[in-house]
Design brief:
Elements (H helix, E strand, L loop, with lengths): L1 H5 L6 H22 L6 H7 L4 H9 L3 H5 L2 H12 L1 H23 L7 H8 L7 H4 L10 H31 L5 H12 L1 H14 L8 H32 L15 H4 L2 H31 L12 H20 L6 H25 L2 H5 L4 H16 L3 H22 L7 H26 L12 H29 L2 H8 L5 H5 L5 H28 L10
Length: 549
Amino acid sequence: MTKVLQSTLRDSALARWTALLLLALAMFCSHVFMDILSPIKDLMLSEKGWSSTVFGTMQGAETFLNVFIFFLIFAGIILDKMGVRFTALLSGAVMLVGGLIKYYAISEAFEGSAIQEWFTNHLNYIPLFEELGVSPFTKEMPASAKVAALGFMIFGCGVEMAGITVSRGVVKWFKGRGTAMAMGSEMALARLGVATCMIFSPYFAKLGGYVDVSRSVAFGVVLLCIALMMFIVYFFMDRKLDAQTGEAEEKDDPFKISDLGKIFSSMGFWLVALLCVLYYSAIFPFQKYAVNMLQCNLTFVESNELWSSEKVIFIQYLVMLVVALGAFMSNFSKKTILKVSLMVMAIVALIGYCYMGYMRGSAEAIFAVFPLLAMAITPMLGKYVDTKGKAASMLMLGALLLIICHLTFAFVLPQFKGSSIGGTVVAYVTILILGSSFSLVPAALWPSVPKLVDEKIIGSAYALIFWIQNIGLWLFPLLIGRVLDATNPELIAKLNAGLITSEQAAVQYDYTWPLVMLACLGIAAFIISLILKVVDKKRHLGLETPNIK
């Protein structure tokens, strides 16, 4: 009878995974918006007159307030003081506000407005930030890019706040019940948003036979509304859990600002934080340029009207969902025959998807396979970490795969420029492996944080890691854009001289040096993960031990 009385929502697998699904769907929507302009970089250059440097500066603006105004640090303190529910609703609302501002900047309503005129004449120079070389605005930025950057900054505050909130929420609901698998599953589902973005952003931009990039952003804004709704539903579930457990009324060991000192004194924490910034800097900024990189390096097959039709686009997306869900659900099947059947279905669907992408001649569709292999192996890896451990070792493996993939893009893929089949195969295989390497981060890295800090400061710990991560997410999109312009002087000269159009220039960039730069991040990550393994062994941090004992 006592056991019945003590039973809570957290004890129900259905309730736990429902809460996880709500959080994952919210992050799915936010991931779509985060990269909404990434697959249409060529259109932003040709339709809006942006350069690669302008595009990179705008993309990097997402993290500016988090890094230089320290918003993420405050977000972590808000999370620890106010709890998951309040912070989730706040983050959803902030994301939506930022998304609406970015949409306005890209829309026709902005053209010729008084706001456009003001931004054209202002924010060309920001004292101190300009001297430090970290200004979110540059003189050559059009007003549309400045306002879009402003909206993206606000969105960035919301999405990063949502990231730490969701991580804290998963720890709360899956305490002692497979945290690594839960985090891996949440992030795998969330990153399906990247694939969704890659397919539908170009579709909406070109809908009806004419280009309007604002339609893509509008699609993302609608999804941000859905994200806020998911957080609202989660709010009521979480409130019920706290009512059952009494956790909200516990005052025995409340959060204090002085507790933050415990974070700063942890060497293991700082190594994990460095690994985070290196991993994410090698992946997220790359996502923003990956489609354009493929456009510049692949020779596409001529696609007829059938393969370019709207029906095929939707069919391909449905096939992608079959791949993702089949691979994902196979991890939870207890019957061998069902597990094998789901995997076979996913593999067959993946082959079909890749063929459709090849026949469409679509760089966006090719890169959309990025999260698909991760969907299959992330829950598997999370389960392994929960039951066997070896988190630090898995991070070393992830770093090696990062290095191999970026060097393949830099030096191997360009060799297949004249071969549509060979180049496409190399691209598909490398992208799938890159996605799998990134799956090691949620499965191994994020569940390690609760082992390094006290539970009551987990929110602040995640916030500090996200803040450090955001430095890389701000810096490297900007660097990639500038390196692209600096290492393609002849192309830029032809464009400025009017010898080629913006459309022609957009697909002729040489991405070798930006990719080498990202590979170097992988090398640094491998070294840090090796050090982490040594420190874990000496100080008994428990990173190599199972989460479930």
